[in-house]
């Protein structure tokens, strides 16, 4: 277990804000300072405030915040949307993940999911784009066997997109919406 300290000249850790310390724990750690890479394996937990990443394994590469992971990854983020007083929690997960800081993109593959307040999105692959001012998710894109559930409704399609600003999800590619009572609509 340890803490990656905040401050100038310090390594950025993926989508976590560089203005706060980041705590970590794992069963094993391998530090490779000559190539600026760290490997965490076995019950990895990376935490900053209420934001938590859990995985079987994580690799931090470079000083800009590149991160990849496997063995089942779950990221829990608490964010406050503009013009709203209450924070909301979302969870993003999958078997594998890659974070690209240059694009502010978290890509999840194999049994990927996003648990939003009131809805769940599942797909073969999901990509989340983070905002410039922190770890808030701006948008999501999903492909490969997309399923969205909200209350008793289930939407299925080839792809889906979500915009956090409008809280609107759009299904494309032969979408079908069922209501749990036998009714359905196709688009």
Overall description:
The protein is mainly beta and 187 residues long. Helix content is 0%, strand content 66%. It has strands at 2-4, 22-25, 28-32, 37-48, 51-61, 66-80, 87-94, 96-100, 105-116, 119-130, 137-150, 153-163, 168-172, 176-178, 184-186. β9 (105-116) and β10 (119-130) form a beta hairpin. The chain is elongated.
Name the features.
187 residues; single chain; mainly beta; 66% strand; elongated; 15 strands
Helix-strand blueprint:
Blueprint: E1 2-4, E2 22-25, E3 28-32, E4 37-48, E5 51-61, E6 66-80, E7 87-94, E8 96-100, E9 105-116, E10 119-130, E11 137-150, E12 153-163, E13 168-172, E14 176-178, E15 184-186
Antiparallel strand pairs: 1-2, 2-4, 3-4, 4-5, 5-6, 6-7, 6-8, 7-9, 8-9, 9-10, 10-11, 11-12, 12-13, 12-14, 14-15
What is shown here, in short?
This protein is mainly beta and 187 residues long.
Q: If you average the pLDDT, what whole number results?
A: 89
Number of strands: 15
> How many distinct helices?
0
Ranges with pLDDT <50 over ≥5 residues?
none
Order of helices and strands: EEEEEEEEEEEEEEE
The biggest beta sheet is recorded as: 15 strands, antiparallel
Cα(first) to Cα(last) distance is 51 Å
**What is the CA-atom radius of gyration, in angstroms?**
18 Å
Give helix % range: under 10%
Structural class based on helices, strands and sheet pairing: mainly beta
């Amino acid at each position: 277990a340890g803490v990656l300290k905040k401050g100038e000249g310090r390594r950025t850790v993926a989508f976590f804000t560089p203005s706060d310390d980041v705590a970590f724990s794992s069963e094993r750690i391998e530090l490779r300072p000559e190539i600026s890479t760290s490997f965490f394996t076995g019950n990895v937990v990376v935490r900053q405030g209420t934001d938590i990443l859990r995985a079987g394994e994580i690799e931090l590469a470079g000083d800009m915040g590149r991160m990849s992971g496997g063995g089942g990854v779950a990221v829990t983020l608490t964010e406050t949307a503009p013009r709203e007083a209450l924070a909301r929690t979302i969870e993003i997960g999958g078997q594998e993940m890659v974070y690209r800081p240059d694009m502010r993109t978290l890509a999840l593959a194999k049994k990927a999911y996003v648990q939003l307040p009131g809805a769940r999105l599942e797909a073969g692959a999901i990509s989340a784009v983070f905002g410039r001012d922190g770890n808030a998710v701006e948008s999501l894109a999903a492909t490969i066997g997309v399923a969205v559930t909200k209350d008793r409704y289930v939407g299925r399609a080839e792809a889906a997109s979500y915009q956090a600003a409008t809280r609107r999800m759009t299904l494309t590619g032969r979408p079908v919406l069922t209501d749990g009572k036998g009714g359905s609509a196709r688009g």
